[in-house]
Description:
It is a single chain. This protein has 348 residues and is of the alpha/beta class. It contains nine helices and 15 strands. Strands 4-5-8-9-11-10-12 form a seven-stranded mixed beta sheet, covered by helices on one side. It has a six-stranded mixed beta sheet with strand order 3-2-1-13-14-15, with no helix packed on it. α3 links the parallel β1 and β2. α1 packs parallel to α4. The protein is globular.
Amino acid sequence: MIRNLTFLRYAVFAVGILLMAPSYADTLSLKDESVLIRIAFGSCIRGDLGQDFWDPILTADPDLFLFLGDNVYGDDEDPSLSVLQGAYDTLAAMPGYQRLRQSTPVMATWDDHDFGRNDGGRDYPHREKAEQIFEAFWGFDRKSEAANRPGIYHARMVGPPGQRVQIIMLDTRYFRSPLKRKERNAGGLGRYQPNLDPGADMLGDTQWAWLEERLREPADLRLIASSIQVIAEGHGWERWGNLPSERDRLYSLINETGAEGVILLSGDRHRAAFYRLDQQLSYPLYEVTSSSLNAGFAGVEPGPNRLGDEMMGEENFGLLVIDWSNREVRASLNKMTGEEDRHVEIDF
């Protein structure tokens, strides 16, 4: 009886969410030939804090908004995942979120707090149900390939030849190996150290194979969304550098597939910055970290590969403005006043 009641509750929740917001399939029904010019993105939305960030995002008038993870904070070890479900309820009821969904297509991936466990990976016992809740909220087409495989990774290609933007939303949670904690009194920022085990996994074999297929598709500009930072060094919080063989595998895959025009987007850190890597690819690889939409905080950390001396500690969202004539992207990090804090220009 309890199991039936739990299922009924989830079914009611899922139906309610789908009725409250446009379906994900509808959101992604951008015409294949649509030309994307302005793409906004951000991460880390605390439901118990102010919601002033929706208006500046809407004022930026993006053609697409990318939710990069921690879209809700619903850490939950109870099998019912009632806390996680309640966090999505809170987001769905936000007037600013509703206005965004009514005016702007969106895509989303998750990070640890909308996965269900802080710093969680494949050892999280409720990951399957967390996936069901995620896909119900964001309106995944139940008949789609993305909705019928483990994990929430998915991609979209938008634009005519010469102006094709490929958006790849990675899942860095469902398949990820446990992280390696630092020894007591090890010092330095963060709690983790690199795990040198070559068998440690970030994406899982199936997602890696899928990513290779996507990177071999013809595109002019590629946005790879990873909830955690890829290029960043200098800290022991979550990042691809905690699994260095997996990060090397990502760089190698981009090279081997000949994928041009890759820009990395990430969140998670509650602070923002630009990063550039010059050695690994045949062209400079940029990463834009935008975090948090309403819970930023300042802090100092070493900045290998970072552009600029300091990270942006106040609340922010990212914006890409694509100049197709000059094959250039202006990437900016923006304050909640709508004012630009910093920018970088990226050729592709």
